[in-house]
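Friendly challenge for the regulars: who can give me the C-alpha cells for this chain first? No prize, just bragging rights.
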Amino acid sequence: MISIKTQEEIEIMRQGGKILAGAVAAARAIVKSGVSLKELDTCAREYIVAHGGVPAFFGYGQRKGQPGYPATLCASVNDEVVHGIGCRDILLHDGDIVGLDLGVKYQGFYTDMAVTVGVGNISSEDERLITVTREALERAIAKVGPGTKTSVLSKTIQQWCEGNGFGVIRDLSGHGIGRNLHEEPAIFCFYDRRHADVLLEEGMVICIEPMVVAGDWEVMTDDDCWTIRTQDGSRAAHFEHTIAVTKDGCAVLTAQEI
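First reply, four minutes later:
Bragging rights claimed.
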C-alpha cells in the first residue's frame, strides 16, 4: 500500500532532509586521499546526532541472528555499487571514486540521499560516469508530478545512461519513503513491462536513485552480506534524492548542490 503524506508530514521530512543534506555535505568535504571510510562514517554520524536526527541505516535489517547494518554511512568505493560498510578501516586513494549513501530519521520520518565523488585526480571516464549518473537523477526529477507514471522515471534513467554508453543496475531500485525507510512504489533504473507501473499522486514521497556502471549491470554481494559490487569489476556511481510529489510538480526534500 502506498502512503500519502500530509503537508505537515512532508514539512517534517523536509526538516529531516536538511539535516541529511548537511551530513552528506560534511562527509563529502573531508573526502581526500588518506582519509578512511571510518572517518567519513564518524563525521556523518556526529553531524546527524548534533542536529537532532537519528542515523537511519545503523542497525537496519536487524532480526534474529542478524545484527543489522553496522554503520551510519554506506561508503562504496570504485566497483562497489551500494551498501559498502562505512565503518571499515579502508583508506581512500587518489583516483578512487566513492559513493556516499546516507539516511536520517527525524520525528518519526525517514529521508535518504546519495552522491558519488572523486578522490583527488580521477580519470576522465570516471568523471563522465559521475556526471551522467547525476544528470540521470536530475532528468528523472524533472519528470516528477501528479499523473506521471513510475515507468517514465525508469525509462528516463535508462535511456540517458545507456545512450551515454553506461549500464544501469537491474537488481536494485529506488523506493517510496516515509514512516518506513523503504516503502512502495519501487522505482527501477530500467523499464520492464512486468514492473508495477504506478501513477504518482500529490503527497507521495519517493527516492529516485540511479545506480550506473561503466560495464555490465550484473552484481554480487561480498561475504560481509552488505557490500554489493559489479561482477566484472567495472566502476559504479550512485546518486539519490528524496522527492515529494506536489500539486504542481515536486519538491526535493534533500536539496543541495550535488
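The CA atoms of residues 28 and 113 lie 13 Å apart. The mean pLDDT is 96. Your move, everyone else.
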